[in-house]
Amino acid sequence: SSQYTPSTMPKALVAALTALPTIAAASRPLLVHRGLPPLPSGRSVTLELANLEDAGTGGTVWSSSHALCRWVAANLDLRGASVLELGCGTGACGIFAAGLGARLALLTDGGPPGVLALARRNIDRNRGLYPSASVTTASYAFGEPLPSGDFDFVLGSDVAYHGGIEPLALTVRRLLEASSPPRVLLSAPDRSEKSGASLTQRLIGTARELGLCTEVKEEAVRQFALHESLAAEAVRTSVLELSLDRAVDAAAVEVACMRVNAKPSPSIF
């Protein structure tokens, strides 16, 4: 999803993202990502990408999306399920879920308008993988009132970012307070902040403060490239499942939630 401005992103990341439109212009009018794991049918999701100016970091498919799609395909049965994707960016995880048989997938993002426009194009591009499913988009920023609907699963890849971890954890808390709570699965790279703490560690700590348990479902290092035309490098990613912790002090959790809710939403543009 659209998490950073160029001024707050690592220089190497800015360079790689800036290269994508150049690659597209040199090779083909449209830059397409075909690297997600194949579906059980043997067919593949293909995703249009966008440049940094149009969609921020939401225009690229990240290693976390690959990790989450791979884990979901191996461990969950999404046939007939309803799925909410947080910080959808290109729509990779929500579209992949629909390809696995989800009857409904709502793809949300709080980034620039170009992000959801890109996700909608990718929904249409892959329509043949899920002809009877409802796959739609909605604008949603962490901490806002929840999107309407009941969901069986909530997916989010690379959605933990500096300044946005607390609103993300609060959103997850609200989703899990539903009468029939969904399973919430998030994936994140082992990316560190200036303080030295990884974003994953910060997410786990903040989730604990808000009365959430975090279980690491997978932690793996795999080779990953932003595009087939770029060199791959080793990236460590984690897949986490969040759930309510019934054993925590309810009063302390309420105070923590009120504190987070009172903060202004961080700007990510």
TrEMBL record:
InterPro entries: Methyltransf_16, SAM-dependent_MTases_sf
Gene3D superfamilies with a match to the protein in the record: Vaccinia Virus protein VP39
Pfam families given in the database record: Methyltransf_16 (PF10294)
Organism listed in the record: Emiliania huxleyi
Matching CDD domains: AdoMet_MTases
Domain of life: Eukaryota
Protein name per Swiss-Prot or TrEMBL: Methyltransferase domain-containing protein
SUPFAM superfamilies: S-adenosyl-L-methionine-dependent methyltransferases (SSF53335)
First and last residue of the signal peptide: none
